[in-house]
Amino acid sequence: MIRTISAAFLTLFVFELSDVIFAAEPAGLPPVVHPMDNPPTDEKIALGKQLFFDGRLSADNKVACATCHDPAKGFSNGEQFATGVEGKKGGRNSPTVINAALQQFQFWDGRAKSLEEQALGPIQNPIEMNLPLDAVVAKLNGIEGYKSQFQKVFGTDVTSDGIAKAIATYERTVLSGDAPYDRFKAGDASALSEPAQRGMKIFFNKGRCSVCHDGRNFTDNGFHNIGIPGSDEGRAAISKSTGDKGAFKTPTLREIARSAPYMHDGSLKTLEEVVAHYVKGGSPNPQLDEEIFPLKLSAEEAADLVTFLKEGLSSPSYPAHTAPQLP
What we know:
- The chain is mostly helical.
- The chain has twelve helices and two strands, in the order H-H-H-H-H-H-H-H-H-E-H-E-H-H.
- The chain has two domains: about 5-170, Cytochrome c-like domain (Cytochrome Bc1 Complex, Chain D, domain 2, Orthogonal Bundle), CATH 1.10.760.10; about 180-310, Orthogonal Bundle (Cytochrome Bc1 Complex, Chain D, domain 2).
- Helices cover about 35% and strands about 0% of the residues.
- It has a two-stranded antiparallel sheet.
- The longest helix has 15 residues, at about 5-20.
């Protein structure tokens, strides 16, 4: 966790590290904050990327983080549910890793408060990668390339703490900004087509999308019941509050056109279906968020809104990462 320090020092610390390790973060995004005990280095990022793409972190040596978070599929997997070892499927859609560095909570129910905490969960989950931490540590220590890299990066052999820190550091480089929306807001009137400009106005006004999808990462980092039918308790399983039943984390909308299907259960296949869901006001239930109600959007307005989501928030600098050479 990040220690409590002055805002001025934190800002200086973040930008000094970012300037050393990364090119400037994409336009339109806030700075990425790194935990004080896990500063980034080039070597740590490279190690984390290898681990992210390596199926040997799973019991059958086939399922990697990138299996469910594929760069070619918006860092999701293009399917309704995540698929783990032996073809086992969970009950939730794979959330994108894009801009996860800017999220306050990880997983749909927010049970992890950092990328470091999140990174080890799927490795141990019996329906995902299904490998106990002591087993994955032993396996990686048996690979000389990994053992030597851990010594260089952390000064130790492979440890579960090092695995978490390396993967998290890599994931903080999966950033998308500098989209046509950002360029339009910066003064480039040609960055958005006329339909996208109309859709942007719907997004921030009549469509009320920005009530939850606000800020530079297009998320309030909150949890909402938006009227998706089903028995999944969502945030309530973590908070133990009845009011959180069926509430799930607000995802970023950056690169949303790349990461179909949508919602926590992957039940909506297209952005047109997503907009139609909100236009009808979702499905009634006792915990339905007060901000969810039928919207009076015409067919043209709904189409323009979809155009804004697809065109306005898809960046030409999309982080189309490819699998690295593995040790």
